[in-house]
Amino acid sequence: MSWLGEHRAFIVEEFIKNGGSPVATECTFLIRFGLGRQEAVPDKKTIYRWVSNFRQTGSALKQTYPGRPQIATGPENVAVVGATIQKSQRHSARKHAAALRLSDRSVRRILYRDLLMHSYKIATAQKLKERDSENRTKLCRDLLNVRVTDVVCFSDEAHFHPSGTVNKQNFRYWCEGNRRELHQRAAHDPKVTVWCAVFNFGVLGPYFL
């Protein structure tokens, strides 16, 4: 229960008047605030704590402590992280933390809370043709009519580029807003393709091409 300052002050005064008796103090507390015997009152441990706080600090109110100052996320480090991000927006928070000798958690807190930045991921966009919508609708209807005895196959592939082309699954850039940044790459650069298919009776692959 949350006790008010009025309750705490009354307890301290009555405890001193009653010669240090917590039982007598509880009784007078019930009468003063019009409480029933089944209602909550400050227990013995609480009464002793309030009196002890009053004797040490001159107040029966709950003590508040400033705690350890947040040096890692202070104004100086916020400015340093902001300047570093502007120079290298494509580096991960972990790399920035290692370079600045700060914890990864502190750097992320500064990025999100103080600099209001977000981590954006590259999304692959493909231009749709006029017949694409019709073809997709037709495919969905055909799949709905597939019988259980028919063969169903779903396949996919992934490309791995030895030239160092960015993998969109791992790439991020930090910015206050999505800049819709374009990432260009060669259309026919050397790569290794991994293909795999899933049938209704099992998995085929993977195959390396």
Question: Mind explaining what this structure looks like?
Answer:
The chain is an alpha+beta fold. The protein has 3 domains: 5-57; 75-116; 132-170 and 181-208, no CATH class. Helix content is 40%, strand content 15%. A hairpin with a 2-residue loop joins β4 and β5. α1 (5-17) packs across α3, α4 (75-87) packs across α6 and α5 (93-100) crosses α6. The model has no long low-confidence stretch (mean pLDDT 80).
Quick synopsis:
By secondary structure, the protein is α+β, with helices and mostly antiparallel strands. The chain contains seven helices and five strands, in the order H-H-H-H-H-H-E-H-E-E-E-E.
Helix-strand layout with pairing:
Elements: H1 5-17, H2 22-32, H3 44-57, H4 75-87, H5 93-100, H6 104-114, E1 118-121, H7 132-144, E2 153-160, E3 172-175, E4 192-199, E5 202-208
Antiparallel strand pairs: 1-3, 2-4, 4-5
**In what order do the strands lie side by side in the largest sheet?**
2-4-5
Spatial separation of the terminal alpha carbons = 69 Å
Strand content: 5-15%
Shape label: elongated
Distinctive features:
single chain; alpha+beta; 3-stranded antiparallel sheet; about 40% helix
